[in-house]
């Protein structure tokens, strides 16, 4: 199962997301859940750079069952416009994953947490 976790900061903005695991909804190369989640995540990372001019911290580890963590830098280096665009992209990712979750409950779980 893929587990997606989105973390919101004290202002309610998404500051990071983590995707772990594998959907195992079909044979390797034919898993539409995995393909959809991967496409959404990769396009979000690429769009953060291309559209917002933001390069997030990205960690991956395929060896341990699939792992992707993406975090916005918290050093106040982003302009308000960059933050606004980043939030639109991250909220779009969250909505996309939640839509997949509705149809494929056995293969993906999405949750949001708040940072203290």
TrEMBL record:
This is Ribosomal processing cysteine protease Prp. The keyword Protease applies. The lineage of its organism: Bacteria, Bacillati, Bacillota, Bacilli, Lactobacillales. The keyword Protease applies. Transmembrane segments: none annotated. Keywords: Hydrolase, Protease, Ribosome biogenesis, Thiol protease. It comes from Enterococcus pseudoavium. Coiled coil: none annotated. GO terms for molecular function: cysteine-type peptidase activity. One of its GO terms (biological process) is proteolysis. Pfam families: Peptidase_Prp. Belongs to the Prp family.
């Amino acid at each position: 199962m893929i587990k997606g976790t989105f973390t919101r900061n004290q202002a309610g903005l998404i500051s990071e997301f983590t995707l772990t695991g594998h959907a195992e909804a079909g044979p390797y190369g034919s898993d539409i859940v995995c393909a959809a989640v991967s496409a959404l995540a990769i396009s979000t990372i690429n769009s953060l750079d291309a559209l917002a001019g933001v390069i997030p911290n990205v960690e991956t580890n395929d060896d341990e069952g699939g792992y992707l963590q993406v975090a916005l830098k918290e050093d106040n280096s982003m302009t308000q416009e960059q933050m606004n665009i980043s939030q639109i992209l991250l909220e779009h990712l969250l909505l996309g994953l939640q839509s997949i979750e509705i149809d494929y409950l056995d293969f993906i779980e999405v949750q949001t947490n708040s940072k203290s």
